[in-house]
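Following up on my earlier thread - several people asked me to post the actual chain instead of describing it. Fair enough. Here it is, all 541 residues.
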Amino acid sequence: MKKLTEANAARYTITLILLTFVIRLFIAAYTGLGIGEAYYFRGAVHLEWSYFDQPPLFFWLSGLSIKIFGLTNLGLRFPAVLLFAGTSWLLFLITRQLFNAKSGFWAVTVMNLSAVFTVAIACWFQPDAPLMFFWLASIYFIVQIMFFQSSDDMKVVRNSRRTWLLWIMTGVCLGLATLSKYHVLFIFAGVFLFIATNKDQRHWLRHPGPYLAVLITLIFALPVLWWNYHNNWASFVFQGSRAGTGSKFQLHIDWFLRSIGGQALWLLPWIWFPVIRQLFKSYKLRNESETYSFFFWLSVWPIVFFTVVTLWADLQYHFHWQAPGYMMLFIPLGFAIDKGLSIGGKRMRFTRRWLNFSACFTIITIGVIGTHMVTGFWTAYGPKWLVHEVHGDTVDPTIQGIDYDDIGTRFAKEGWLKNPNVFAGAPRWWLMGKIDWALKGQKELICFSNDPRNTAFLVDPKTLLGKDAIIVAQENQPSVDADVKPFFDSVKQLPDIAVMRNGVDELHLQVYYCSHFHQSAKPRDDLPLYRQLNGQPPFGK
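Reply from S.P.:
Thanks for posting it. Predicted structure:
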């Protein structure tokens, strides 16, 4: 490899993007859907204006993709892989404009070495890939407006056709980001505070451009608003409740520390620390440098908000919600790396070793875990052993990363798959997704739970009255007794389904044959299913 220069940095970046694109195609094609991906799957084959958990864009994109590539893992994931390649290129362009091309290459490199970005965001069927792409696309146009105008006459700049076009394109990208994930609110907050706190930028508050961009964004958001209007604002209520305090306010330092530790682990600790250092550096320089002020205001909100709320709200293991903020900080980090490699001496040697270690760790880890996920070769002293030592659980957590094809095999063998008088179900929403993907959406499903999420909108349960059901559970006997049995004349447990990986029995799922689906005689207003059978909406009043 020739020495990285301003002249060849773009070419090296394109090479890196193409190489990682091809690698991710293989990961996307040959690893199974995680529980979140499988849960979202049905949305890609039944397109709606919007959905309970998320806005609709990633469903729409994968719905188009499976028309081209078929109902396969790659078909669902291809848009994410393609969009992340675009995200990497946008990161390079923005960094090159605000710093230099070499910094752009290093920013892209570090993002591709970060655990949460290089696989979860870049490969998985999730809303994060389109969010990151259109987030950076909108930032790209905002940067053109506020940092790179050709004329020194601000009156000419404000009234130029180019400025109006840039604000329109900003609105379009923000609109598409809004159709990706609700995180787009942090862009509005960040840009507003950047403008408000920098006197040379405050004139934009008196320009129609920003308000035109907001109007365009709202027009793009109409599908989300329309769906929520007709479904008791269920999506907004659900997402808003996650940041709530529950029935009683109480501080949880353990949740807060778990969030910080989880973010560091997701980014990789040796990448997280220098990224956080850039956040503090941006804060210190915000009054001296418009560039660093821009990064501070566009990064601080998602990081701080989703970390602080864990003091009272249990966000569980959603450590990727801060990712857009971290992505913005890869830009000044790229510049810091370039400086470290150019300064010579101990700092240059340390930076090189840090980069080499990060690259080796990410490549080896992805290779080992990916191979184990597919083959299960690392049984001794691997993920299963570690989880057993910490939690006493005997299930290998990586088993969630394979497809539960044995469910489909069992349904076909018993004749349930082709029987129109049999539907399927589960007592948990996340298990519903694994069942649905194993059956490739060929059966109607019902979630017997007080938390069915989007599965409550997949089918009208009144159309299934009188039919039998096959309920699949994973150690959920109390839920089967309390939430399934009241809706059937009889429930009979059948032999388990063994989920196999490379010929090894890894997980057992319980199977129940349930006869004659009907409304529960006992009032169960806590169950959305009960409410739907009474002709009420599953959520709200």
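The chain has 23 helices and five strands. That should answer part of your original question.
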